[in-house]
Amino acid sequence: MKIAGLVTRKAIRHRWWMLPLMLLIALWLPAADQGGYRTDTHYYAAIALQAWKAALSYASVTPLLDLRAGDRVYMNKPPLAFILHGEIITWLGLSMWTVRLGSLLAAMLTCVATSILLRRLAGWRVAMMSGLVLATTVEFFRYTRAISLDLWQCAFVMISLAMLVMGIPRDDKNENRLRRGWMVAAGVPLGLALLCKPFMALLAPLLFIAWLALRRKHSAILMTIAAMIVGVAVALPWHVWMWHIHGDEFLRVYVQNQSIDRAVGNAGDMPGVQEPWWFYFNVIATTYAPWLLSAICGGSWLLRRRRPSGGSFALMQLAVVWSVAWLIVLTVFDGKSSRYTVIIWPLLSAMSGLWIVHQSQGAAGMMRTVGRYVMLWLGPAAVFTGVLLTTVPLNIHKPRDFAWDQLLKEVDAHPDRELVCTQRAHHIAANLVMLGRTWPPMMEESPGMLLTGMDASSPEFPSAAGPGTYVLDHAQEYDPQRLPGDLIMKSEMFVLVLQMKSANPK
Is residue 180 part of a domain? Predict the structure, then answer.
């Protein structure tokens, strides 16, 4: 009984961060092992899995830092998120739920860091309510169903932001020494965020400096700049090392293509993508129900004479500066995607949670009592319900494409035929890695040419029949004139062409 009472007291004391986590887990569990791979999940998982296999085979960390996509160098993104996801998949086994588990952990870290930040500024009620809002935000938790580099970047940025808030100086000079240490140490998670996605995380401390200037906390600005320097120092060695190995090609791919070209909408992997300038406003308006109204009401406090006092108003200022600035920056960038909004949701949820808590201040006593029972019963009940729903055949995700299994049957039936892929199909060919096979080598081709590099109509083409080559191509870009051969299989995603070394067709 004493142990049960101790556990109960601990649970009540920490309900402000535990309840959002329980709700997030409950939402993730149903159909966590169902469906196919979304967006770039198969591609990222294949890169991560391949890196870990190579690292364990060669007993070296180099494959984890210098990534490969099949037989090609992958320099588009930093390696940290791939390392984390690959470790989970390697040690727990390859399955749909293990591929998605890393994103759940990133979302959980984001929730906890956000709750710590909000509790520091506005109390545990605001922290708990905002955490619940964040956990139930559709555009936040749905990316736990895919490998999301944006979630990992957001997690480390929010950890850094929470440490910066914890380090804001107060009147006690002895305590301020420790606080300054927190602020400088905040550069470590900032550097880890820079090792998840290129450069964008550096905007976070700049926005924090803007908020400090509004709050007239000038002594903390220098410490925030020091945190930025630490963050750059953490991330810089990998960038310098990659530049040393790959030279100007790394700068062209990583800086020019993946950063500058994406900002202006000219990235090679985003051809023709031109969303309207109001794209992100539409995402918020259509997916943030039912919390949009409470967020607007909370933000409107900055325009009213009657404002919340103390830390609540400081939090509202930070939330508005953060949300509006990120929204403007993302809108200015031509390359747009709903997954980029992940960084906005944590402090936008603070605007909702703060307004809801202040509107219910008159029922504070009731909230305290209800909060205890919610923590004791509703949180575990939500997780238990999520576990039960894993046994129900829910159709939450688009079914897996079983055409890949048919492709493997065809290839296995002819082991003397090599399987290669076109440059256009290199991305989708990662699905074969997720089925336990190797990544097909990518071959360069030109119109009317066999992938062996020899024209079928050429007199030099061998007249003797040979085993042939299977060529995997992207279904939407397949052109029989560009890729001659017998069409063996066609699915929604790919085509399989057989190129035979047959008699000279003169």
Answer: no
Whether 372 and 407 map to the same domain: the answer is no
Q: Which of 333, 357, 385 is the last residue of a domain?
A: 385
Residue 17 sits in the same domain as residue 155: yes
**Is there a single domain that holds both residue 201 and residue 346?**
yes
Tell me the CB-side half-sphere exposure of residue 249, using CA atoms within 13 A: 8
The C-alpha angle 361, 364, 366, rounded to 5 degrees, equals: 135
Quick one: how far is CA 314 from the chain centroid?
Answer: 29
Tell whether 105 and 209 lie within a shared domain.
yes
Contact between 289 and 136 (Cβ < 8 Å): no
Of the candidates 22, 281, 10, the one whose C-alpha atom is nearest the C-alpha of residue 131 is 22
Claim to verify: residue 122 and residue 267 sit in the same structural domain? yes
pLDDT tens track, the chain, 506 positions = 455 454 556 666 778 899 999 999 999 999 888 888 877 899 999 999 999 999 999 999 999 999 999 989 999 999 999 999 999 999 999 999 999 999 999 999 999 999 999 999 998 989 999 999 999 999 999 999 999 999 999 999 999 999 999 988 775 555 566 778 889 999 999 999 999 999 999 999 999 999 999 988 888 999 999 999 999 999 999 999 999 999 999 999 999 888 887 777 665 555 445 788 899 999 999 999 889 998 998 888 777 656 666 678 899 999 999 999 999 999 998 888 899 999 999 999 999 999 998 887 755 555 555 555 665 667 777 777 777 777 677 777 777 888 999 999 999 999 888 899 998 899 999 999 999 999 999 876 544 444 443 333 433 333 222 368 899 999 998 988 888 888 999 998 999 999 875 433 33
Q: Is residue 182 part of a domain?
A: no
Amino acid at 209: I
Task: Indicate left, alpha or beta for 448 from its phi (over 0: left) and psi (-120 to 50: alpha).
Answer: left
pTM above 0.85, yes or no: yes
Q: Is residue 395 part of a domain?
A: no
Helix (H, G, I), strand (E, B) or coil at 474: strand
Q: Say if residue 351 is in the same domain as residue 262.
A: yes
CB 367 within 8 A of CB 353: no
Residues 443 and 492 in one domain: yes
Rounded to 5 degrees, what angle do the CA atoms 297, 301, 304 make?
A: 120
Chain centroid to Cα 295, Å, comes to 24
Listed in sequence order, the residues at least 6 apart from 325 whose beta carbon sits closer than 8 Å to its beta carbon are 203, 207, 210
The whole domain housing 75 covers 2-167+187-385
Q: Tokens 């190797």 belong to which residue?
A: 438
Report which DSSP code applies to 488: E
Q: Are residues 344 and 261 in the same domain?
A: yes
> How many domains are there within the chain?
2
